[in-house]
Amino acid sequence: MKLKTLKFGALLAASALALTACGSGSGDNGGDAAADDKKMNIAVFNGWDEGIATSELWKAVLEEKGYEVELINADVAPLFQGLSTGDYDVTTDVWLPVTHASNLEKFGEDIKDLGAWNEESRLTVAVNEDAPIDSLDELAANADKFGNRIVGIEPGAGLTEAMNKSVIPDYGLDDMDFVTSSTSAMLTELETATKNKENIVVTLWEPHWAYSAYPVKNLKDPKGALGDAEGMHTFSRADFADDHAEVAKWMGNFKMDLETLYDLENLLFVENDTDDLQPLVKQWMEDNRDFVDGMTK
């Protein structure tokens, strides 16, 4: 199986915040919509692959319906701000009630929750499968076995906030070096440690294709510092449904279980090594036509 590592750097490099204002139309929908109503964008969190996968899927599905869809990569705070100002139309990867709670406190009155499409997600701290510990409450006493490091993702991510506010103080990990830079950097370190048969601690989340690509296990969280299972929600700018009523309805009704999501993620990120995801998405759509047709009912 071919492992992806370089793709994420390309995604981050593509994250220039070229805010693209969407056109406002007549409020009609479907085939009778004005030309401007057929244009929209989807904002995608840098490095969060369930958001990349579902955004690429929605792009292909909506384009089959005659829409013109642009995907725009952004970091967490600018993405929420862009939704609140109407520069972004929708995003598919808002985690509630914990991960993105602080962003909702700041921008919640100016954006709209279209609904949760999955409620099985969770934040995790993972180690190599053969690591000598099984729980977060064993990590501080064994920090030296992991180079005294925890490898995180983006500094502004909700997972990073949960680590700093809860996990690190709750489990006495203040003396460990919590390294944050990007998801791609974390995955590169995870792959290197796997090849070298070294211990490593990383911040991860489920769903993520890394669980099928690398031999890792989640550390137990007896204090509940990472929270319980969360929902992955689609959010839009406040008046999105006024311009795209049909799409808002479709996205609001959208559901995808973890088995289906992992199937899509494995095709995009594990089995293939390419930045051009649309041909793979269209291949997946043809293999899962009943599911795809149900997305627009």
Automatic annotation (TrEMBL):
* Location in the cell: Cell membrane
Indicate yes or no for the key word Cell membrane: yes
Q: Which Pfam families match?
A: OpuAC
Q: Where is the signal peptide?
A: 1-20
For this protein, the parts annotated as crossing the membrane are none
Chief localisation class: membrane
Q: Which residues form the ABC-type glycine betaine transport system substrate-binding domain?
A: 40-286
Which keywords fit this entry according to its UniProt record?
Cell membrane, Membrane, Signal, Transport
Write the protein's name. Answer: Glycine betaine ABC transporter substrate-binding protein
InterPro entries per UniProt: ABC_Gly_betaine_transp_sub-bd (IPR007210)
Q: Which organism is it from?
A: Glutamicibacter bergerei
